[in-house]
Amino acid sequence: MAMDFGNADSWGTAIYFWIIPVVLGDAIFPPIPSEMVVITGGALSADGRANVFLVATLSAAASWIGDMVVFQLFKRRLSHVLDRWNWGRKVHSGIHHAIAKAGRSSTYGTIIGARFIPGGRLATCAGAGIADVSVRGFSLCAGLGALLWASWLVGLGYFTGSATKLPFWASSLIGVALGLVIGVVVGIIVTRKRGTRSPVDEPGGPA
């Protein structure tokens, strides 16, 4: 039976199955609309069509797993696997371009906060892997970042759904617009902070 994308009941049933692959996929291919799916989960929760805690838990878990996959891919120097496909070569090139643009002066705060900036999650996770950051340190920061990210987006969807009383898809669109603006501002502020020794510096480089 085909899914009716405008029907809240259809989304309420399927949202749990969409979250994990979409959020995981976003880790290596940022154009995948993971924010949209997570915010929609929050909006559906406000409408009583989904469980807000389960949506947040699945979103955070998928985000953390995706971060760890990218991190390990570059830490173990397996990123050349991407070069087997045309799309993979484009992704690989984009990752290095993003890292070069962002620089290597990121702090542990960046691992937590960069996910709020479009494309920042991928560049930071890959950069941390290349720089051989400790697995434990990265895992803890990625876990905290995933919890904050999931809580923020699910809460945003829940708030817009409760406040506007509009159909879930309209609340989702409003939430995405708000999240994009506020998230970029917050992410930039967080990633500009200094004070923790950079975990993404080149090994053997200056402290």
What does this structure look like?
The protein is mainly α and 207 residues long. The protein has one domain. The protein has eight helices and no strands. The chain has helices spanning 8-28, 34-46, 52-75, 86-102, 108-113, 120-130, 135-164, 168-192. Helix 2 runs antiparallel to helix 3, helix 3 packs across helix 6 and helix 3 runs antiparallel to helix 7 (135-164). The radius of gyration is 18 Å and the shape is elongated. Residues 1-5, 102-106 and 194-207 have low confidence and may be disordered.
Radius of gyration: 18 Å
- What's the overall geometry? elongated
The number of distinct structural domains comes to 1
Largest beta-sheet characterization: none
Number of helices: 8
Quaternary organization: single chain
Task: Encode the helix/strand succession as letters.
Answer: HHHHHHHH
Pairing-aware structural class of the strands and helices? mainly alpha
End-to-end distance: 59 Å
Number of separate strands: 0
Helix and strand arrangement:
Elements (H helix, E strand, L loop, with lengths): L7 H21 L5 H13 L5 H24 L10 H17 L5 H6 L6 H11 L4 H30 L3 H25 L15
Helix pairs in contact: 1-2, 1-3, 2-3, 2-7, 2-8, 3-6, 3-7, 4-6, 7-8
Summarize the structure.
The chain is mainly alpha-helical.
Descriptive tags:
elongated, single chain, about 210 residues
